[in-house]
Structure formats: C-alpha cells, structure tokens
C-alpha cells in the first residue's frame, strides 16, 4: 500500500482526527512543573490570552462507568473586557440520542459510518453525560444551565480585566459506549478512553467566546496548569497527559524505586500537567506499559493490550524506535518538543491528538500504525497542541500542516526518496477542486456539506497550502518559515495571517494574495502552454488564481534551460538558479517570451509542486 492509500485510509477510516544560520529558534524550556500564570505577549502588540488552572479530584467506578468529580478552576481574565458570563464544554453530552452530533450524523449525506445512527440507539446506561451538581464563583452559588454540550453560566459578579476568580464545581459523569474517540469497551476492548471528559472552560479570545457545541469534530481550548487526582481500581494502568507525581505508590511501570502501594482496592494517581489546554487519559487492566527515552528529548510511554495477538504486540515493539525518530525529526524541523513525556496509547478508536499523548487504534498493521497514524498524530503535537490555532475555525492549519510534516517525515525516516512526498496529497486536492464539492478553507469544521469535503480540504488542501508555499517562496525559505512560525507563536493560538506574515518576513515577498485566494476562495490554478513557435513561447492563465511560474524549456539541440516568471504582485522572486525573465501581471491572460535557441518542447512546473488542476495543458 503506497503512502497515498495509507493516508486516504487514515482520513476515511481514522478520520479524526534544514537548519540554517539565519534561523532564530529559541526553544521553549522543558516543562516539568507548573509555571506561574503569565500573559504571553508579542512585542509591540496587544496580544493577550486567558489562563486556567484546574485542580480536579475524580473517583471512577469501573463497574458502572460513572465517575464523580470535584473541580476547582482558577480563571484569569487577561482580556481587556469585563466578562458577565462564562461557558463550559460538556462534551460527553454529545453521546445522547437527539444530540446535535447524533442528528448531524443522521442527516449528513455521507455520514462517518463509525457514528452512523449509533448514538440514537444508546440506552440510558450507555449514554455519556456530565451533570453539574453545583457551581460557585468565589464561594457564591451560580445560576447555570446545560444546553446540549455547553454549560451557560451567569456570573454573580462580572470578572474585571486582570482579575482571577475561583470556580468550584461538583459534577457526575458517565462514560459513553465508545462511538468516537472517548468511551468505554470499544471494539479493541480498551476499558476507558477518556478524552474531553471533564467540564472544560470555553476559550475567550480576540474574537470573543468560542463555546462551540460539539458536533463531533474539532476543539479549541485555554492553556493552563492541571493538577488531577484520579482514583480508580488498583488493577487499572493509566496513561495520558501529565506527569505522575506518586510513581512509587502506583507502580504499573511508572516506578522509579521500590513500589510502596497502599493496601486499598483503589489507587489515587496524582498527575500534574503544566501549560496544556487539555487533559486526556486512558485506562485498562490489561495494558502493557513500555518506555523509551528519546535522546535529548522526552520519555516515550507506550500502552497497549497484552490480550492482542503476538504479531500485534510485536508491532507495538517495532513502532518504538521509529516513534523516537519521528519525535526527533519533528523537533528538528519545527521546534523542540517542550515536555519531558509523550505517550502513545491504544485507545481503541481512530487516531486522535491530545496533550502530551495520542489515543489510537492498536490492532492495525505495523505500516498502518507507524506511517499512517503515529506519524500523523505525533505531528499534531506541534500544530494542534503547541501552536493551537483555533481548530474549529481553521482545521486546515492543524490537519493540513500536520499532514505536510508527516509526509516529509515518512519520506525521510523510511528513506522513500520521493522528490514530492505530497504527490498523492496534491492529486487528492485536485480531485476535490474538480469535483464541484469544494468549499473554501475558511469554512468552519462543522459546516462542510460533506464529511469527505471537510477531510479532503482540511488534510489535503491544507497540506498543499504549505507545500505550495515552498514552491512560491523557495524550499529553504519555507523551512525557515515553519521554524519561525513555531518559535513566534508557540502557546499563542496563531491565526491564518500569522503563517503568511511569517513567510513574508522570511522571504521579503508579498504573499497575502496566496492566503486570500487559496484559503478564502475555491479559485483554482490552471496555467497552460498556449503555443510554441520557433523560439517563441506563449503561456496562458486559465484559472483565476495567480501564481509565479517555473518553466522548463528543451531546445532542439537537446539542451534544457529552466526559466522563472515572477508574479508581479509578489514584488520579488524566490531564490532560484533558473533564468529569471520579465514578471507576469495577473490580469493579463497570456504571456509571451522569446528564447535564444529554437524550442523543441516546454513544460510548466515539472516538479508538480504547483497545484495546477489541469496538468494536461502544461506541456507542449
Ligand atoms: Zn489529524
């Protein structure tokens, strides 16, 4: 199975989810202990972000799949605005008959078959829920209302700019039968996959509140420090976000010395996770727990079921050194992974990225596991987790950029030697563009007409966005842009403009047209060779989208020459060894130039790095 098909498989089946002297990469410090809440600031800007500190005590009953939670949340309003209300996500409420996720799945033309109508058939003891029993602001009882997957809260006292308040909540939860991502006793028999399982404060940023109802797709969260005490049956092995504070009273592969367990039926696991926007865990009595140290990097933890076949367990051994290589590759090409731990956990469904960990399907083939899933989910750590653009609004910046570095990582780590590792990704985008079912990348993740259009746009057009930016500005400039984008915006929720402004600062080129046309419209690229006569070439722009042109000319004497036609609105050229000729102003439909020798043939962009939707007319 080649890369392209592995990834189509990943999207449709697992659907979730060069250094240079000039690069200035300041690496975030390894995060081991909670940091003092700070307001990250970009110099000379008015950037701000909210801050949360959670303390939770959770008591899980592994027989009823119900849990009781106490949550103390210190919320700091770093915005310039007075807040009269706050909102929490109650994601587990999506797994109830009649929920928006259920109805959407039953009314969309191409439902995810893993969801289908399964939610509508859940019995009361199989649904998911979070019931808020009490909520207080600085000790005063608050009025709150659960509306689907969102808790609406009227504050007793508005929160002033710069003020911190404490919310105390008591809640009851029930883990749903696994439909997607979270849940219990899934098809691979993992007891508890616990993602988006706690009342989670919605993000408030320069665009206001993001209390998105959960319809089954993307997330956006607030950074903060988590302190979680999880009390659960003593036989269960837990993996997830956060550093275990009491390893020797737990054991289960975490011990650092002599194990000294209390003589109780349940153990209390104490985790601390600094500067994360999510806290995820999974637990199973049959987990094998392996660890592998990444040199100068985090400890990798692997959790997989001992009840799998010998071959499957062997796959989980084989992925360990390769996972080290992916961690190193991404740290070198994007930015250093800042935590001292990362866990790869058999969650029994799909593949999905979370803070300091991923939950994924564990019974696949070795190639599917490492090339199709782990490479992708780990790549997300940099984009979904550390940069954390608003995934709901801009899923392409997360899925697409992860896809880009994933394919390059696979190409390097598996020595595949492809000149364009994303060739299949380009073909998938081009098929979408020509299908009549494309929606602009600016579409909210939940608002695509078809699931398939969402996947192809977010993963593949998003991947092409970055790869093609390399065609436009030069590969080396793209590599520097990715590093600078990470360095400047890590832990800052970047916006689409931030990647383009970074690219402009690295290259000195004007590039906002690229964001406008490729992300905000469905305009397509189609350049053609209109005619070749003697030593004269005429090219034609057929699609609406502007592009600079790489052109290879072969003369009748067999010699080839590379030409570069700058796009006038870029106000410059990429670094190139090609012969640079006069620029092309977009509105002119044709462009003619003459060579010194007689031409035999001409080809536009032989590299295939420009996403031309009709390559049939690129050659003459
Ligand atoms: Zn993904």
Question: How does this structure look, described?
Answer:
By secondary structure, the protein is α+β, with helices and mostly antiparallel strands. The chain is built from 10 helices and 30 strands. An 8-stranded mixed sheet has the order 5-4-8-2-1-14-17-16, with no helix packed on it. Residues 1-28 and 34-38 have low confidence and may be disordered. Bound molecules: zinc ion (ZN). Residues 16-17, 376, 380, 399, 402 line the site of zinc ion.
Descriptive key words:
10 helices, disordered N terminus, alpha+beta, 25% helix, binds zinc ion, single chain, 8-stranded mixed beta sheet
Morphology? globular
Q: What's the β-strand tally?
A: 30
Mean pLDDT: 93
Classification by helices and strands = alpha+beta
Spatial extent as radius of gyration: 26 Å
Ligands bound here? zinc ion
How is the largest sheet built, in terms of strand order?
Answer: 5-4-8-2-1-14-17-16
Distance between the termini: 33 Å
Secondary-structure map:
Elements: H1 3-13, E1 51-61, E2 66-76, E3 83-89, H2 100-107, E4 129-137, E5 140-141, E6 143-147, E7 150-159, E8 164-174, E9 183-184, E10 192-194, E11 200-201, E12 203-205, E13 208-210, E14 224-233, E15 237-240, E16 243-244, E17 266-276, E18 281-284, E19 287-293, E20 299-305, H3 310-333, E21 341-346, E22 351-354, E23 357-360, H4 366-387, H5 395-413, H6 423-433, H7 451-473, H8 475-489, H9 496-507, H10 512-520, E24 527-533, E25 536-541, E26 549-555, E27 560-565, E28 579-580, E29 590-594, E30 599-604
Parallel strand pairs: 1-14, 20-21, 21-23, 27-28
Antiparallel strand pairs: 1-2, 2-8, 3-7, 3-11, 4-5, 4-8, 6-7, 9-10, 10-18, 12-13, 14-17, 15-18, 16-17, 19-20, 22-23, 24-25, 25-29, 26-27, 26-30
Bound molecules: zinc ion.
């Amino acid at each position: 199975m080649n890369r392209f098909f592995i990834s189509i498989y990943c999207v449709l089946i697992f659907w979730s989810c060069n250094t240079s002297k000039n690069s200035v990469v300041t690496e975030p410090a390894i995060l081991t202990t909670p940091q003092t809440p700070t307001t990250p600031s970009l110099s000379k800007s008015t950037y701000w972000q909210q801050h949360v500190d959670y303390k939770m005590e959770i008591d899980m009953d592994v027989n009823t799949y119900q849990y009781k939670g106490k949550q103390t949340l210190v919320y700091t309003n770093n915005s310039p605005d007075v807040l009269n209300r706050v909102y929490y996500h109650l994601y587990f409420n999506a797994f109830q008959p009649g929920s928006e996720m259920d109805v959407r799945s039953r009314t969309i033309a191409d439902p995810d078959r893993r969801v289908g109508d399964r939610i509508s058939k859940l019995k009361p003891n199989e649904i998911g829920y979070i019931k808020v029993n009490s909520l207080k602001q600085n000790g005063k009882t608050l009025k709150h209302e659960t509306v689907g997957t969102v808790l609406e809260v009227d504050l007793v006292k508005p929160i002033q700019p710069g003020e911190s308040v404490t919310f105390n909540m008591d809640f009851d939860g029930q883990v749903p039968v696994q439909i997607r991502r979270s849940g219990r006793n899934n098809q691979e028999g993992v007891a508890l996959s616990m993602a988006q399982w706690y009342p989670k404060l919605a993000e408030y940023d320069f665009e206001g509140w993001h209390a998105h109802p959960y319809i089954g797709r993307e997330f956006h969260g607030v950074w903060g420090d988590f302190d979680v005490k999880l009390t659960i049956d003593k036989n269960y092995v837990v993996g997830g976000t956060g550093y275990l504070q009491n390893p020797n009273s737990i054991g289960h592969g975490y011990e650092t010395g002599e194990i000294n367990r209390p003589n109780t039926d349940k153990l209390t696991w104490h985790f601390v996770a600094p500067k994360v926007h999510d806290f995820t865990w999974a637990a199973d009595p049959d987990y094998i727990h392996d660890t592998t140290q990444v040199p100068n990097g985090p400890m990798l933890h692997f959790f997989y079921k001992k009840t799998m076949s010998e071959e499957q367990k062997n796959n989980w051994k084989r992925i360990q050194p390769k996972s080290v290589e992916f961690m190193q590759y991404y740290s070198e090409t994007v930015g250093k992974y800042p935590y001292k731990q990362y866990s790869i956990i058999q969650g029994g469904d799909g593949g999905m990225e979370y803070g300091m960990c991923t939950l994924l399907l564990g019974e696949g083939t070795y190639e599917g596991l490492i090339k199709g899933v782990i490479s992708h989910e780990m790549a997300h750590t940099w984009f979904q987790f550390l940069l954390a653009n608003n995934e709901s609004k801009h899923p392409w910046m997360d899925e697409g950029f992860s896809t880009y570095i994933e394919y390059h990582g696979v190409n390097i780590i598996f020595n595949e030697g492809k000149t364009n590792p994303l060739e299949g990704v380009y073909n998938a985008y081009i098929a979408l563009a020509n299908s009549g079912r494309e929606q602009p990348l600016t579409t909210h993740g939940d608002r695509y007409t078809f699931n398939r259009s969402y996947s192809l746009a977010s993963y593949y057009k998003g991947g092409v966005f970055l790869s093609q930016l390399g065609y436009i500005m030069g590969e080396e400039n793209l590599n520097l842009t990715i590093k600078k984008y990470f360095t400047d915006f890590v832990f800052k929720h970047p916006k689409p403009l931030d990647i383009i402004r970074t690219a402009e600062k690295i290259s000195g080129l004007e590039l906002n047209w690229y964001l406008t046309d490729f992300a905000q419209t469905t305009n397509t690229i189609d350049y053609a060779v209109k005619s070749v006569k003697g030593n004269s070439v005429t090219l034609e722009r057929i699609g609406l989208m502007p592009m600079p042109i790489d052109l290879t000319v072969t003369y009748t004497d067999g010699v080839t020459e590379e030409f570069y036609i700058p796009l006038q609105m870029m106000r410059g050229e990429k670094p190139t060894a090609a012969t640079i000729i006069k620029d092309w102003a977009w509105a002119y439909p044709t462009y003619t130039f003459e060579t010194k020798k007689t031409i035999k043939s001409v080809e536009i962009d032989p590299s295939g790095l420009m996403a031309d939707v009709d390559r049939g007319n690129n050659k003459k």
